[in-house]
Design brief:
mainly beta, Maltoporin, Chain A, 26-stranded mixed sheet, 57% strand, globular, disordered N terminus
Length: 681
Amino acid sequence: MTIRHHLLASALLLPVAVPLTAQDEVPLTDDAPEESALADEIIVTGRGLDAALSTGIYATTTIERDVIVASPSGRIEDVLRGVAGFQQFRRSDSRSSNPSAQGVTLRALGGNATSRALVLLDGVPLADPFFGYIPLSAIAPETLGSIRVTRGGGSGPFGAGALAGTIELESAGPDSIAPVLGSAAINDRGETELSGVLTQSLGRGFATASGRWDRGQGFFTTPADQRVPATARAAFDSWNAALRAAAPLTDTVEVQARIATFRDDRTLRFAGADSTSSGEEASIRFVGRGEWAFDALAYVQTRDFSNIVISSTRFTPTLDQRRTPSTGIGGKFELRPPILEGHDIRIGADYRRADGELQEEALNAVSGAITERRRAGGATSNLGIFLEDDWQIGPLLINGGLRADRSSITDGFYRAISANGVPVSTIIAPDRSDWTASWRAGASFNATRRLDLRAAAYTGLRLPTLNELYRPFVVFPVVTEANAALENERLEGFEVGFDWQPVNALVMSVTAFDNKVKNAIANVTIAPNLRRRENLPAIAARGIEANAAAKFGQMSLDAGLAWTDAEVRGEGASLELDGNRPAQTPEFAATLTLGWQPADGWRLAGTLRHVSTQFEDDREADRLAPATTLDVFLAAPLRGNLALVLRAENVTDEKIITRNQGGSIDLGVPRTLWAGLRYGF
């Protein structure tokens, strides 16, 4: 795996565009051939502004394209697991988990299936407007050029939601992918993958069309000794498609536009326990790279989710979550004015709004008749204003930023009526809004040519999702209630670390951190088989993260580890949780990848991963055993741009426990072997 740590932001500088009209104004002469060649070209990158200098102050890891497209599973979450501190709510991947459980976080800050990390694709937040989960199956790794992960760092210029950090996905442009890409693969269970990417130059701009389709019968997530006649494989059928274009407007300004759609159908545990998630989105972005650089973005998202809950005793439907339509809209404007020498200033504002409504019916497990109709929903919005400055003083870089957020929660409700139309329960939540101030500050010092020292402190903000506020749910036999009175989560944290390159072939990065989430939202047990979403006083996490990347000739090594001492701070009703480890949070996780590239087009890599013990619940009653897995990837060129690709997931067939509720177990992916062809990668 090739992971580059941001020691200097200058490594990301893009080529400078020159005026369109210059080709007519500068004659071709023997005296100025170079100037003429430059003047005849405007470079459209399809990317946002260069990374800020302060990127190197915070714990940041960049994953390059060659790693992204060489995942043994072919899934984006598998790529991200190589980053120290990255964690999903459950150990399942995006083929064998309920979509609404696909929350991601960093720094072992726990969670309840809602993301505490902000995930962006070309600047657009990807989290579902209602649930807050990340639609991982809608992200095609082959369309990406790079991924930058910032752990901690607070909200800063990224916006509310970047509580545990930020994961920035950047689409690939014509400078990093071939005009035609295609791949097809099949595994030993007969499951298939098919994907394609077409990139075409359009004048001085370009357009990219992509599509992917994954389907299969899946594996049994239920252990053999717990299966019944109604037990079903984790079948999946998902597809996504996108069209993206970029074009110059002037010699320094380009416009980027993207439209995308996806659908994901899954079955979990029992026949008929089907879930569907789908969505569409559109965005437009204007990027100016002149002296007064700017980035202006606007987007709209529509999403829907459905789910059938099956009784684990009668194996018949008990709940039909038939629709959860939601909409997200937002935008961001950032300006970088050249007003002070030695300073890189960022001024801007961002806005997000989410609204949605749950529509479900409770069913009689015997007759299948509707017993109750439920509706719940509302809206949340956040307007943020930020100012940040990077000040370079010789080998010292200082960063400081302030942010003010106006957040509001409105139109919240929950209604349940009987099949005869008689009201059973009604909650009308009062509208509320508030201003919150956040800040971050840090510094890095270039102690030697090969050693950078850094330190930072920060705060952050996350609003509760509509799901947390208003939607109760059941994972039989446990019922989890919503809570319309949930408060915003607040992060306080600091970190120190260093980036060291003792020799040209080796880069190391180590960070020690102390982060605390106040008002942390968790699923708190209040009675047997009954939980409720509550604000805990805090979740505190202290730990060490380390990454190393080395390349010696044809061999490469990449390693990452995260050790975290995380605990709940409880008081009052949650006092008995005080000192407990947050649910679904491992103490230790490590990844080691060894790679071999003997020639162009060849790649052999093996990845060893270990995740320590986790607990399913807040009371630490149900244990998830540690798991160590080995994955393998091989690409071998056949002819021209065509290559054979062999992949193996969980080679040793390790038993991966992803859920344990009172002894009711779900398992992760067993040993899976893939074979396929690639063209153009």
